[in-house]
Amino acid sequence: MTMKTVSKPSDQALDSLLNIAVVGHTNTGKTSLIRTMLRSTDFGKIEDAAGTTRHVERATIYAGSEAILNLHDTPGIEDAHGLLKRLKSTDSKNKSPASPAEILESFVNSVSVSDAFEQEAKVVRQVLRSDVLLYIIDVREPILEKYFIELEILSKAMKPIIPVFNFIAGHKDELSAWRKKLATINIHASLEFDTVAFSFEAEKRLYQKIQTLVEAHYDRLQKLIDYRSKVWDQLCFSAAKRIVELIVSVSCYRLNKIESPEDSHQSPAATQLQDFVRKAEQRCLEDLLAIFNFSEKDIALQKIPVSNGHWQLDIFAPGVLKTYGLDAGSAALKGAAAGAGIDLMVGGLSLGAASALGALAGTGWSTFKRYGKEIKAKIQGTEWLCVDENTLKILYLRQQQLLSKLMQRGHAAYDPDHIEETVTGELPAKWSEIVSILQQNPLWQKPSPQRDQNQQFQTLQSQLINALLGNK
User: Does pLDDT of 341 surpass 80?
Assistant: First the structure.
């Protein structure tokens, strides 16, 4: 879905593709838009300063291995008033009447390297070569005359223009004002596309809007839309599945515990368990970043509590339960005597050694194979240490929060994005039942054909994935 570095089409082949010029005033987010569409932070240079892009740069969008369209990043138009005056002067020098596009051509041909309008000439030249123009508007900016002069100039090329409203998150009133102002000059076919607060549906609508303007490229654009929809669904599904694997792995993990329950927080086994959870969550974080083509730097800048790839907020630190809206009076870890599976198997009878021996005598081989270690451990007085439900809640809510941030982060985002101090995410339906089933099946802790083909596991996995993705 990003620019390819191998098997690149020839320049001639690329020139035959749909060519889209990304134009507008300086510092409105033109390069940001292309980065987001490419799913890459590598394209161009982004700074919070005017005139960062000084030359026209081309990026190619693919559907799999097939090149579909070219995006052209252009410099900002810095002097719209002066440019319009220059165009009128150029027109006045023509010996015969010229069309608006011919006036633009004359202007481009008249500009030298040292000309004050050299940058504007680069923009106009690319506009004349393109099939569609995306005019990027930063809705946070005041509505000034210069923007409408730019639109007047661009319209002379007689190419379809789509105004694209950028940085719309949290600026509803400003967006409405821009729409009303554009309507006064009879421009109604605009689009919302925030390059920082990303929405896949907004990107999809952008391609659909272009489809209506360039009929000759309709089928190829549809191929791109279908391909990107499929890939996006796969990305989100893979990320949710990775989180489920984390929850399963931690829920099923258990350790022998010899010390008494009241020493659980200080015991070597408890320390070992906490270390396991921390490392498991860290591996999940790294995998999620890779799935969405982000880096640790992206998340640190996003103000998610991650530094150098590690969560700054330790899952076992004091106050974490309260931060996540959970019962602060509950222990973060507990000793689970023999495991819930044994309690169920013996029908709630006393789990003394004699009862356990009697229960063992009446079981079949399959039951013994599954619970043999637990039965033996109970007879010997061994306890199991496992992660309790509140810790699992925190783990799930943190991943749910991270997934939401990654799905809504554009690849042009670089400003800090503060998150709520208290997380109030929603747990899956029948959460306690899910945790109970997992803790009864310690053999599910690692992937295996037996686990992955188990109907109960598949149902549980689907429930968690659908909850993370917001599916009903």
Answer: no
